[in-house]
Specification:
With about 250 residues, the protein is of the alpha+beta class. It has helices at about 25-35, 55-60, 60-65, 85-95, 135-145, 155-160, 170-175, 200-215; strands spanning about 15-20, 70-75, 100-105, 105-110, 120-130, 190-195, 220, 220-230, 235-240. The protein is about 35% helix and about 25% strand.
Length: about 250
């Protein structure tokens, strides 16, 4: 947990993420892959991957800044008058409404979207197979419950999102919820790369496939507040909240 509790609330962003238990192998493996531990802030040596045209470090520049996580409520600035204590209260309430569950994760490629070069596959991520309903329910609760604490998007933030060529429904969600990929447009995932070419994507998937089998189901037993202390700064895990209200 981050020891810092004060930030410039006009610029800091807060996100509600899932992060694997810090003492477990899922946390260690994912943090090592990205090259940074979002709890300690320590930089790590990423593995070497056969068939990858660049280093893992170069393939994970953006992903590393966000840390090893799965998004439940996308990064947001706090609304005027809202405080970190308000965020904690909502997190405690949401966590108490949901029990722990497991997800069978598998690596795959998520689409790059329109406007990308034809030789770019998209980005690689771990996604759940069957049995994703509990995490979808948890994410929907997070999207709704934290909404009163979210500051409106700036014009620049909105323009950046709309540059992704959103569908009409995604555009409506962006306007209403500050993020286009919610509810029926949501797909839980844990990012393994930035946008990469098709051959690099295949190399990453091949590297992760046997490892997810060895690691086994991912235990979702908490949600966490992550903080971006200043624009462009690495996100850090500030505090966890156990599902089911466990201590």
């Amino acid at each position: 947990m981050s020891g810092r509790t004060t930030w410039d609330l006009s610029t800091a962003r807060f996100a509600i993420y899932y992060a694997p238990p810090e003492a477990g192998r899922w946390w260690e493996e994912g943090s090592r892959w990205l090259g940074r531990d979002a709890i300690t802030g320590r930089f790590l040596d990423a593995p070497k991957v056969p068939g990858l045209s660049c280093t893992v470090h170069d393939a994970t520049v953006d992903a590393r800044r966000y840390g090893w996580h799965g998004t439940l409520k996308a990064p947001m600035r706090l609304a005027p008058g809202a405080r970190l204590g308000d965020l904690r209260e909502v997190a405690l309430a949401v966590a108490a409404r949901h029990g722990p569950f497991t997800l069978a994760m598998r690596p795959g490629v998520l689409p790059a979207g329109s406007g990308q070069r034809s030789d770019f596959a998209g980005f690689v991520a771990l996604c759940p197979g069957a049995g994703a309903t509990p995490v979808n329910v948890l994410a929907e609760d997070c999207v709704r419950a934290f909404e009163t604490l979210r500051a409106p998007l700036t014009d620049a933030e909105t323009a950046k999102r709309r540059a992704q060529s959103l569908s009409s429904r995604q555009g409506e969600y962006l306007a209403a919820w500050g993020y286009p990929f919610v509810f029926d447009e949501f797909r839980f995932h844990m990012t393994l790369s930035d946008r990469v070419g098709t051959s690099d994507a295949a190399a990453i998937v091949d590297w992760w496939q046997p490892r997810v089998q060895t690691l086994g189901p991912m235990c979702v037993d908490s949600l966490a507040i992550f903080v971006e202390p200043a624009p462009g700064a690495p996100f850090v895990l500030h505090e966890r909240f156990a599902l089911g209200g466990r201590a």
